[in-house]
Automatic annotation (TrEMBL):
GO terms of molecular function: magnesium ion binding; ribose phosphate diphosphokinase activity
UniProt keyword terms in alphabetical order: Nucleotide biosynthesis
Chain ranges of the Ribose-phosphate pyrophosphokinase N-terminal domain: 7-62
Positions of transmembrane segments: none
GO cellular component, one term: cytoplasm
Descriptive protein name: Ribose-phosphate pyrophosphokinase N-terminal domain-containing protein
Organism annotation: Trapa incisa
Keyword rRNA-binding attributed: no
Catalytic activity: D-ribose 5-phosphate + ATP = 5-phospho-alpha-D-ribose 1-diphosphate + AMP + H(+)
Pfam families: Pribosyltran_N
Single GO biological process annotation from the record: purine nucleotide biosynthetic process
Entry similarity comment: Belongs to the ribose-phosphate pyrophosphokinase family.
Length: 132
C-alpha cells in the first residue's frame, strides 16, 4: 500500500481487502488500516471485503423479521437511498424482493461465486440491478 503524505481529515476512504489465505494476516492488515485511517480523522471508512474467509456457507441463518431490520435502519437514521439489498446467490434473489420493496426499491445485487479449484478461494462477482 502506498500513500503520499497528505492530510486525510474529512476524506471518504474505501479499503478493498479480501480475507483469502492467509486469512489472519489479511484480516489483521485490514484492521490496522482501518485504525490508521480513523486516527488520521478520515470522514468515513468503508471496508469492501470481496471474499470473507470466516463465513460458513453450510450454516443456516434464521430469518430476521423485516420489521426488525427496518426499525434498526430507522434508529441509525440510515436513508434508503444509501442501501443495496444483496442476495448471497442467484437463487435467493426472489427472497430479497419484499425487503427491496419495503426499502423504497433500493438497488438489488447478488453474489456469483465460481470455484477456481477444489478448496481454493473463489472468484466473487457482485452484480447490481438498479431499479426505479
Amino acid at each position: 500500500m502506498y500513500i503520499r503524505k497528505r492530510v486525510l481529515r474529512g476524506w471518504d476512504v474505501y479499503l478493498v481487502q479480501p480475507t483469502c489465505p492467509p486469512a489472519n494476516e489479511n484480516l489483521m492488515e485490514l484492521l490496522i488500516m482501518i485504525d490508521a485511517f480513523g486516527r488520521a480523522s478520515a470522514k468515513d471508512i468503508t471496508a469492501v471485503i470481496p471474499y470473507f474467509a470466516y463465513a460458513r456457507a453450510d450454516r443456516k441463518v434464521s430469518d430476521i423479521p423485516m420489521d426488525d431490520i427496518l426499525d434498526y435502519l430507522a434508529s441509525k437514521m440510515i436513508c434508503c437511498n444509501d442501501l443495496v439489498v444483496v442476495s448471497p446467490d442467484v437463487g435467493g434473489l426472489q427472497e430479497q424482493v419484499p425487503l427491496q420493496k419495503k426499502l423504497s426499491h433500493a438497488p438489488l445485487a447478488f453474489v456469483d461465486e465460481r470455484p477456481h479449484a477444489h478448496n481454493v478461494a473463489v472468484v466473487v462477482i457482485c452484480v447490481v440491478f438498479l431499479t426505479s
